[in-house]
Amino acid sequence: MSLDDDSLEYHREEPPGKIEIRTTKSTTTQRDLSLAYSPGVAAPCREIADHEDDAYQYTAKGNLVGVVSNGSAVLGLGDIGAQASKPVMEGKGVLFKRFADIDVFDIELDHDNVDAFVESVAAMEPTFGGVNIEDIAAPACFTIEERLRERMDVPVFHDDQHGTAIISGAALLNAVDIADKDMEELSVTFSGAGAAAIATARFFVSLGVPKENITMVDIDGILTTERAESGDLDPYSREFARDVPPGDVADAIVDADVFVGLSVGGIVDAEMVRSMAADPIIFAMANPDPEIDYETAKNARDDTVIMATGRSDYPNQVNNVLGFPFIFRGALDVRASEINEEMKVAAAEAIADLARTDVPDAVRKAYGDQPLQFGPEYIIPKPLDPRVLFEVAPAVARAAVESGAARTDLDLETYVEDLEARLGKSREMMRTVFNKAKTDPKRLALAEGTNEKIIRAAAQLEDRDLARPVLIGDAEEIRATVADLNLEFDPEIVDPSTGDYEEYAEALYERRRRKGVTRTEARERIRDSDYFASVMVDQGDADAMLTGLTNHYPSALRPPLQVVGTAPDTDYAAGVYMLTFKNRVVFLADATVNQDPDEDVLAEITRHTADLARRFNVEPRAALLSYSDFGSVDNEGTRKPRRAAQRLRADPDVDFPVDGEMQADTAVVEELLEDNYEFAELDEPANVLVLPNLEAGNVCYKLLQRLGGAEAIGPMLVGMDRPVHVLQRDDEVSDIVNLAAVATVDAQGE
């Protein structure tokens, strides 16, 4: 099937289109319905009638954007009319929701008349917290936006203008830095004089480019003062007319530092690129075919050509989705009256700054494991980078407050946490751990210190003040990798192969001499980074340890178990996953260590897992799971969790509710507990789930993660004498950082 065929099938599959409306409150009972509609709905109506701003408190207005178009200038399709533009506007709604959790009503207006369009949109102001106008032909789009901004008291944003301007502006900030050019001395040539080109030129001026250094070319040639005086230019393009001789793109591009293409494909050739100034910057953004293709531009010269396009199959895609969801998010959250120039500049600077940071593994994987690293081939972040929300929205919100556009207070210090909660419960939970870790960062031994992921994680841990990482491994190899990654990171390194660590060897010998290890073998083993890190923690030279990224879990666990061992009065360690759902968190054990635990082990695992839940500020309610409910099946398998639960309830030191054995749905569905087992110790669904064996634990967490939509953090090793955590072999840098923060918090409790 062709792309067109695939797209048609995608859109017509039931239900047709791409969006739907879902309720956000319970509607399961008669009382729910009486609150949602008549008669209960009268109460918020009266409040809003008395105080209009209460609409933000009692309705969805504060998180609702209208995406409005007449379909007169749809990208790549032209004037297709209002009805045909609806799939595009629905798509815009998808992007708002996917990237910034903003709800959208798409509005297609069959208006060619500017006055009628403006009146229709302005009349909808009570509905929306903001308006995104889209795909409207120039010059009408300028007039419409100007008039709506004057009329409406909510943000109005024409993304075709300002989105392109902001993203290309972010790219320009970084490109100028890489090319070692001066913004105030740039010579910039624009191909195209439509809405996007004029808005981008204006924005470049806001970033510091002198207006007199901008040359703009439309289909009839260079915008000159002669053309302006003859009435050949509309009022908006006239703004960039220059007192220069007439000419075409080839004339205008000579000696230019920057070329910005917002016109049509194929109008620039290699010779024209060679006529530009040294180390030229080329943004060829016509879609789907750029003004000059990537390879031709890069190969036209021997110096550095920094190239950006509007396409996803080349580096440096200028994609508006990097901007509008996050700009609106910040504007909505401070109830801004407008999106002003200060907010747009703040967005561009935040996007530019993000490109200079280490790229998450998930983003690299989404783009085919491309080597994404700040430089000529990576001057703007990728649209799928989730960090854009946490950088751009706060920057926009802060600029709104500082410029006077905000109408409500916002705690900018905790705002990022609120944004993280929108993207998933796991981020909210980890923020609790991160905040605790930062209060007293601990010394963390990273056994696999030569691994690139470990090095990148260590750099983040130090930069975010979550831990004091110590990389264990070949010092020369580690420093070379740091240089290759272009990290601003001077790590602490301990190299077991070069130093004199006789004391460590002796400590290992003392630990293992009655387990068949000779002094000579201890000296050999201490050169192994896992044993070295384990002894380092055991001797108090490090507070915690991470390993396991390059070894199978049992192999990685063996050295710390042999050296660090389990805690006093503890015989068994266990592996726990924290699984987060939209509105629920559960801790699941044991998923990695104990194959067939007896009742003693199950009781011990339950205590350790409850302690772990409290480190995440979750008050534990424990259920020991089986395929039996409270004796409905009686055999040795069901007796083990039953007896473990009885033992825990009889222990005066156990200060959390615990019960079992019970089936999984009984443990997590409140109605089942209340209706069928009112005698149960749990008065709310369990959040600590202890599985009867390793097989069940492993199967359970993987099914919940893959099919149930759970996000998994872990495995977190509990029961050790000192904080030790074993990574999974496919863990990403973010997973390493998460477990490192958990290890730091563990060590704080030592």
From TrEMBL:
| Family annotation (CDD domains) | NAD_bind_2_malic_enz
GO biological process: one example: malate metabolic process
Superkingdom of this protein's organism? Archaea
The UniProt entry, under InterPro entries, shows: Aminoacid_DH-like_N_sf (IPR046346), Malate_Decarboxylase (IPR051674), Malic_N_dom (IPR012301), Malic_N_dom_sf (IPR037062), Malic_NAD-bd (IPR012302), Malic_NAD-bd_bact_type (IPR045213), ME_PTA (IPR012188), NAD(P)-bd_dom_sf (IPR036291)
Required co-factor(s) are: Mg(2+); Mn(2+)
The Malic enzyme NAD-binding domain, residue ranges? 161-401
Keyword Metal-binding in annotation: yes
Its keywords, alphabetically, are: Metal-binding, Multifunctional enzyme, Oxidoreductase
Give one Pfam family.
Answer: PTA_PTB
* Entry's Gene Ontology molecular function annotations: acyltransferase activity; malic enzyme activity; metal ion binding; NAD binding; oxidoreductase activity, acting on the CH-OH group of donors, NAD or NADP as acceptor
Protein's UniProt keywords contain Oxidoreductase: yes
- Which residue ranges does the record assign to the Malic enzyme N-terminal domain? 16-149
The record's comment on protein family reads:
In the C-terminal section; belongs to the phosphate acetyltransferase and butyryltransferase family. In the N-terminal section; belongs to the malic enzymes family.
Protein name according to UniProt: Malate dehydrogenase
Native species: Haloterrigena salina JCM 13891
Native organism taxonomy = Archaea, Methanobacteriati, Methanobacteriota, Stenosarchaea group, Halobacteria
